[in-house]
Amino acid sequence: MTRAYKPHTPRLKIVDRYIRDLFKDELPQGIKYHDGDHTLHPGRGVVATANRIAVSEKISKHERELLITAAYFHDSGYIREYGKNEPIAARMAGRILKLIGYQPDEIETIQKMILATDLAVKPKTHAEKILCDADLDHFGRDDFFELDAKLREGRRSRGIDVSDDAKWYKGTLEVITNHQYYTESQKKLRNKQKQENIKTLLSKLEQIEQRRS
């Protein structure tokens, strides 16, 4: 059973409260996947997952605090804009964390972690790799298709045509097959189920093709 995470430093307690209020009060209704649960779910959210991987990877206490701070803020940019939200989230983190007492070098490290969660960016540091693994943890979980459906519904609610099943699953397949977990602990925990999810996607596409032929 996944152990629930609770903020474990004074600064993280302030960050936790801020982000919870932000998602509750300001998240647009059209956001279905990148919602509060994605970040804050006590067992499977990005914050809890980042903490779990950090412990498994045995990073320092200070680095873990910065990592979890970045996990809290990594999707906060969706409050303002859907596309390219990572730079927005990094700027938001910079403004707020300065008020909480984070030092300039700490803020810069956190901002780099947030920017690394862009799929077009390759993470460089160990902590950046942990955050990326946490952000896409569900690729190797049994709730992958449930969450993929939420992502699809979110796009539909914003007026994007996602009615073509084959097109949707092909896009999903491309993303998951091009993805990799970076940390050894995450590879060991999630790669097997990830491969099962890929097989299921291929099966869905095959069934669609059979119906169309």
Summarize the structure.
With 213 residues, the chain is mainly α.
Uncertain residue ranges: none
Strand content: under 5%
Number of discrete domains? 2
| Overall SS class | mainly alpha
How would you describe this structure to a colleague?
The chain has helices spanning 10-26, 36-40, 46-57, 61-73, 85-100, 104-115, 126-135, 144-157, 165-178, 184-212. By secondary structure, the chain is mainly alpha-helical. The protein has two domains: 1-122; 136-213, no CATH class. The longest helix has 29 residues, at 184-212. The radius of gyration is 18 Å and the shape is globular. The relative contact order is 0.11.
Write the layout of secondary structure elements.
Elements: H1 10-26, H2 36-40, H3 46-57, H4 61-73, H5 85-100, H6 104-115, H7 126-135, H8 144-157, H9 165-178, H10 184-212
Helix pairs in contact: 1-4, 3-4, 3-7, 4-6, 4-7, 5-6, 9-10
From the structure above, extract its key features.
mainly alpha, 10 helices
